[in-house]
Amino acid sequence: TSNKTGHHFHKWEVAYMYWSPDGVENVVMGINGQFPGPTIRARAGDIVHVQLTNKLHTEGVVIHWHGIRQKGTPWADGTASISQCVINPGETFDYRFTVDRAGTYFYHGHYGMQRSAGLYGALIVDVAEGEKEPFHYDGEFDLLLSDWWHQSVHHQEVGLSSKPMRWIGEPQALLVNGRGQYGCSMAAHYGNSSLSQCNITGNEQWAPYILHVDPNKTYRIRIASTTALASLNLAIGNHKMTVVEADGNYLQPFETNDLDIYSGESYSVLLTTNQDSSQNYWISLGVRGREPQTPPALTILNYRTTSASRLPLSPPPVTPRWDDYAHSKAFSNKIKALDHKSIPKPSPTYHRRIVLLNTQNKMNGYTKWSINNVSLSLPATPYLGSIRFGLQNAFDQTKPPEGFPGHYDIMKPPVNSNTTTGNGVYMLGYYSTVDVILQNANVLKENVSEIHPWHLHGHDFWLLGYGEGKFTKSDEKKLNLKNPPYRNTAVIFPYGWTALRFVADNPGVWAFHCHIEPHLHMGMGVVFAEGVQHVAKIPKEAVSCGVTGKKFMTGSHLG
Ligand SMILES: O=C1O[C@H]([C@@H](O)CO)C(O)=C1O
How does the annotation summarize its subunit structure (predicted)? Predict the structure, then answer.
């Protein structure tokens, strides 16, 4: 075996194109004529180099490499206004970064709502040569989950930022590897469906991605969710799954009949093909946490011992009811880190604890999401450059709040619903240990509190636990400091809290936000920065806009 660093060079062009993700022709944001974009496959320690050219006619673009920590390359994180200037039409930007750890990742647009427009794809990192995964499998499948609207993202963005706000509603279809079915169902013939039976030859862009398996083998199914809105549950007829990986980190294996997956998360499950091999089985994905108006996504587990076009004997497995939160919490609480050299043990103490209250608010008649009563509105100049070069006029210099008033009633709609906007930064001590308590609350409407999956850029965190109601000092003893999962995305349940801990050891500026795209668009995020003075050699192209761009034109040097 050799220890040579692999180098993966990809030339990509992003463009809108006609596509039919669910049987209805539409316009998607594709890469090199593909939707979803090409899968990147590398080994741990390799360098990935994507030379991205923007072929959109009138929009900028960036791509975020979700789950890749960008150690030493914070300008390659692909967050508009945070890590870089947008790539203008006709321009090319070089994303060059190390994939330092094996796992299931993905990439997606991180400017406006371009992820919802279809700008996403899979990024799979295998173990380094000579290394082994801590589990065995004979074959592998990659499922990238998303949701799809017929209305364009431009239309959606205008609706969300209008007065009164027009909500995007539920998706028209759920997609597996960019494929779904609108207005028909592959399982209509069992009865109890108002939809007609789909007529699919298999060559359609919207034909399901079928998993072809041999009997008595073990398969690794990698599942990642880049949905704009939907929380999902995946179940496979007659088969159990063993969950072994989450967000690029190994788990203590556990068996399950169905798997919850929130936007921004990834899992690997092992499936043993030990059922009647003369039959096929449904794979079904249902909506969680919001009253569904979208039929389940369906595809087929095909035993090669029978024809792939033969439909399963029994109807698709029924995923848990959308509001069965007890089921979701039980699943989340089963997730524990594997004792493995690749996963650091949690720091036993913290230096700073930031409590982030999540509320839906009004601001002068507009609807916003706010964190401690501040709704994020990103600045014109990317923070990475403005903080590195000390340009204080580029964003709010007031420190964002560390918490919220103790008397705030999380069970009621906000009393003072008039929120504020801001773009201040949480400056974290370099190498300090930071605790974040994400506190959920009631939305503007009585008796409603929603699910929000929070995603942290540039780091993994230890997910120390979940609880009900308002987090109090006495909840500290409930935190798991023994084997918390090490992840980059964590959900907050309705009216509950979620506790995280991470070490601020990655020089750069990092987004931390709700991964529901319309929610981020409405301000549901914060910005962390640490060790920015240690960032050297920022490529010019990353900061040639706003006040950092002007700095260049006066001939100053960078880095
Ligand atoms: O941000 C949101 O707005 C709607 C609703 O609260 C108002 O229409 C919804 O379900 C969200 O998640």
Answer: Dimer.
